[in-house]
Amino acid sequence: MADLKTKPHKGSVTEFLKSVSNETRRKDAQTVLKLMKQITGERPRMWGPTMVGFGSYHYKYASGREGDWFVTGFSPRSQALTLYIMAGFTRYDSLMKKLGKYKTGKSCLYIKNLEDIDTRVLKQLVELSVKHVEKHQGC
Which of 49, 72, 95, 138 has the fewest CB neighbours in a 10 Å radius? Predict the structure, then answer.
């Protein structure tokens, strides 16, 4: 079984975010950084070269695959600011309708500009996701 390549390391979150070339994405990332710090009470850590994660938990699938992952996190990618909502989105239909302009993947929330999002709703979404992961993963 292959090792998971994305792991926490001692890279500087501050330096990484300073290196984001798109000014809007850099500012949006700073806003999300503050929001996630406030919600989790955790110190942000770099996970791989481009992801900022908060907290961690150990998972093990029925297949035997296991590893460690962050409770919530984000990455200021070139196409969009990506937030990792580990609980997924299906349980949050009513919040998602009020969130604003976004796209989703299985556990990824893609936001082009934070100004297109209701940040109060985003905060609720992240809070609920963190609580869900903590409850189900024994964090």
Answer: 138
pTM value is: 0.90
Show contacts of 129-138: CB within 8 Å, 24+ apart.
129/72, 129/85, 129/86, 129/87, 129/92, 130/39, 130/40, 130/55, 130/71, 130/72, 132/86, 132/87, 132/91, 133/57, 133/71, 133/72, 133/86, 133/87, 134/71, 137/57, 137/58, 137/59, 137/71, 138/57
Task: Check residue 1 and give its pLDDT.
Answer: 45
Domain boundaries, the chain: 8-137
What architecture is the 8-137 domain classified under in CATH?
Answer: Alpha-Beta Complex (3.90)
The candidate with the shortest Cα–Cα distance to 74, out of 28, 119, 113, 41, is: 28
Q: Could you report the per-residue pLDDT of 14-45, keeping only the tens digit for each?
A: 999 999 999 999 999 999 999 999 999 999 99
